[in-house]
Amino acid sequence: METAQKTTIQQKREILKDFSSRAKAIREELINQCKHPEEEELIEAMTINQLIVEHIYTDEIHHKFNTFKGWIKNGFVVKKGEKAFLLWGRKKQEVEKPNGEQKTEELDFFPITFVFSNNQVEPLKNAKD
Fold this sequence. Notes:
Layout: H1 9-33, H2 37-45, H3 48-57, E1 65-67, H4 68-73, E2 76-78, E3 85-88, E4 92-96, E5 102-106, E6 112-117, E7 121-123
Antiparallel strand pairs: 1-6, 2-7, 3-6, 4-5
Helix pairs in contact: 1-2, 1-3
């Protein structure tokens, strides 16, 4: 019986670091191809996540990405067994204090966010079905 090898969070961070390096190289290449300063400004303003999604993950099959909860809000569910795409999360996060108040905390690192593509989801079934 073959067992699936699990990728640790540290291994996923290393994969994402590699994608980030590739995204930075893509940004430089795109900037060098710009013919107008406005184009250059738009490319410089792109986040690493945007570059990873648009230039590494996106293809003819995968062209829209969202989080697990984001897909549910849009009426879709992630198909069983699908593997997430990796992106950097926000360094700041909302934390609920014991008294119920919300507090923003800054992390010492960027967490990993997991997203799924349009090809990995299916419409939610109505409760009536």
